[in-house]
Each structure stands twice: as C-alpha cells, then as structure tokens.
Design brief:
- By secondary structure, the protein is of the alpha/beta class.
- It has two domains: 193 residues, Vaccinia Virus protein VP39 (Rossmann fold); 74 residues, Helicase, Ruva Protein, domain 3.
- Helix content is 40%, strand content 16%.
- It is built from twelve helices and nine strands.
- The strands form two sheets. A seven-stranded mixed beta sheet has the order 4-3-2-5-6-9-7, with helices on both faces. The protein has a two-stranded antiparallel ribbon with strand order 1-8.
- Strand 2, helix 3 and strand 3 form a beta-alpha-beta unit.
- Helix 8 packs across helix 11.
- The longest helix has 14 residues.
- The two termini are 41 Å apart.
- The structure holds S-adenosylmethionine (SAM).
Length: 291
C-alpha cells in the first residue's frame, strides 16, 4: 500500500468509513521527500526506542519500525488506529497505544527518541510534556507549523517564553521547511521539520525551574514593555528595587525582554533568589506548567 498516493489513501480510508478529522489535526503526510528528510533528521538506529505521536495511517511508522529496535505509536483516533494495524501488519517491533498522548507516561521505557508529524492543536503541550518529563527523550524530531518552529529557534532580539523554555532543555534547529502541498488534506500554513537535541545534563544545575520560569514569565508578562516595568507589574514589587536587582544581574532595566539571553535569565534568577523572599516571587501555586 503506497501511502504517498492520495488516491490509494482516500480509498483506504473509505474502506474503513473514515475521513480526515481536522479537529484532531489529521493532515496526513503524502510527500516522499519530506518523509525521507524526517527519517534522515531523526537519525534512528537499530538500538533506538522510538515514541511516535499520532502515527495516523502509518507512513512514518513503517519507516521507523524498519530502522528502530522498538516503536511505540500513540494514536487517539480508534478508527485510524484500526487502519494503522492493517497498514503496519508486518511490523513486529511496533506497539500501537490507543490513547491520548497527553496521558502517556514515558517513565519505564528507557532511553528513547520522539518522532512525529504533530497535530497542530497540541504542539506546544506535547513539546513541553516531553521536555519536562522525568525521563526525557534524547531527541525530538517533529513536523510542526513553521511559525512555531521559528519562534522556538529564535535568537536574542526575538526571544519569547516559548524559545526560552525550549532552549532551557535543549538545542532546537529547523531541518527543512515544508509546503502545505505535502499533506492530504493541505493545511493553511507552511510547516517545518524541527529537531531538538535534549541536553543530557540540565543547562543550569542550580536552578529551581518553577521559580526560573515564574521570573521569565514575569519578564514577558506585559507586552512591549521594558523588563523592569514588566517584572515590577507582574511580581507586584517596587520598580526601583527591580531595577537595582536587574543591574546586579548585569541586565539593563530599560531593555525589552526579547533581547535577553538564557545566561541573562540565569543571572536574574541567581540575584532575585538571593535577595527576595521566594514565596513572593513564586507565590503559593503548585502549578508545574509555567510556560
Ligand atoms: N503521522 C501521520 C502522518 O504523518 O501522516 C499522521 C499525522 S496527523 C498530522 C496527526 C495524527 O495525530 C492523527 O493521526 C491524529 O488522529 C493523531 N492525534 C491527534 N490528537 C492526538 C492525541 N491527543 N494523542 C494521540 N494522537 C493524536
């Protein structure tokens, strides 16, 4: 069965009474070159365990199963999962998990890589979930919206909470831009193959990430504002005090937060946690999802 052939793909779906569900981000990849690029970028080898999110009809799954030791394919749509078990019938190293990836726990599967053509509606959620997991993947190779991929890879001058959060955990890089015509049905926007190489050890050993992200969030809290104003508003602290602390951290209070590097944020964290009562900064919230 050739899943790059749109007519064959449509016929296969009709046989099962299925049709692409846009609410579940079902834009199936049909382009051989993009498929090869994802596989090449993911660098999956014989000793690798792979977690594929949203395998769909199996175009990527079959290639991953040929190369990896083990593939866990997590699919939420029961009808699509049924088609998948037919299209991947010979793949003995494949386990199809019929569930929502948001409920999947990678603890206990050892070292692994994530590979996916991600449904758009959960892109940031999924990236965050895996980067913050106790058992993090070695790499994430994901096909996502171009605009989100570019925001993730931004350099100082265009940083955001998202780019800081991803770059806190690893090094992101865009491998390829992908036209809407590479999918059936075509999405409205361009996509990109993004690879994140996850750090083996945390970038900053001495950081409580909840407080770190609380501070970053405060810095970006008020759009188009200078960092001192934004932090003083978000943390409800005197602007002069905030400015003094920022200067101690080597950061000019008049800068916009988009210009700060990860090292700047680390210095801010070190100074703020030294001089401020952490409860003031962090609050009483137990929220783990600060980005
Ligand atoms: N991998 C296939 C491909 O490249 O053609 C399909 C990719 S399609 C963009 C996204 C897939 O993710 C769909 O099969 C969809 O049903 C599945 N999906 C959507 N939401 C999901 C969720 N929360 N958990 C697991 N799978 C999900």
């Amino acid at each position: 069965m050739d899943l790059t052939n749109i007519l064959e793909l449509k016929k296969l779906m009709r046989t099962y009474g299925a049709w692409p569900n846009k609410d579940l981000g079902q834009h199936f990849l049909t382009d051989k070159n993009v498929l090869e690029k994802i596989i090449e970028t993911a660098e999956v080898g014989k000793s690798d365990v792979v977690v594929e999110i949203g395998p769909g009809l199996g175009i990527l799954t079959r290639e991953l199963a040929k190369r990896a030791k083990k593939v866990y394919a997590i699919e939420i749509d029961p009808k699509i999962a049924e088609i998948l078990s037919t299209s991947c019938v010979g793949c003995r190293n494949l386990s199809i998990l019929r569930q929502d990836v948001r409920k999947f726990d990678p603890q206990g599967i050892g070292r692994y890589r994530v590979v996916a053509n991600l449904p758009y509606y959960i892109t940031s959620h999924v990236i965050r979930k895996f980067l913050e997991a106790k058992n993090k993947p070695q790499t994430l190779t994901v096909l996502i919206q171009r605009e989100v991929a570019e925001r993730i890879c931004a350099k100082p001058g265009r940083m955001s909470l998202l780019s800081i959060a991803v770059q806190f955990y690893g090094i992101p890089e865009i491998a390829e831009l992908v036209s809407p015509l590479a999918f059936f049905p075509s999405p409205k926007v361009y996509s990109a193959v993004l690879k994140i190489k996850v750090f083996k050890e945390p970038l900053f050993e001495d950081v409580d990430r909840r407080i770190f992200f609380r501070l970053v969030k405060a810095g970006f809290g008020e759009k188009r504002k200078m960092i001192a104003n934004s932090m003083s508003g978000s943390l409800n602290l005197d602007k002069n005090l905030i400015s003094q602390l920022l200067r101690r951290a080597g950061v000019e209070p008049m800068l916009r937060p988009e210009r700060l590097t990860l090292d700047n944020w680390h210095n801010i964290y070190l100074v703020f946690t030294k001089y401020l009562n952490l409860e003031t900064v962090y609050g009483k919230s137990e929220d783990q999802s600060d980005w």
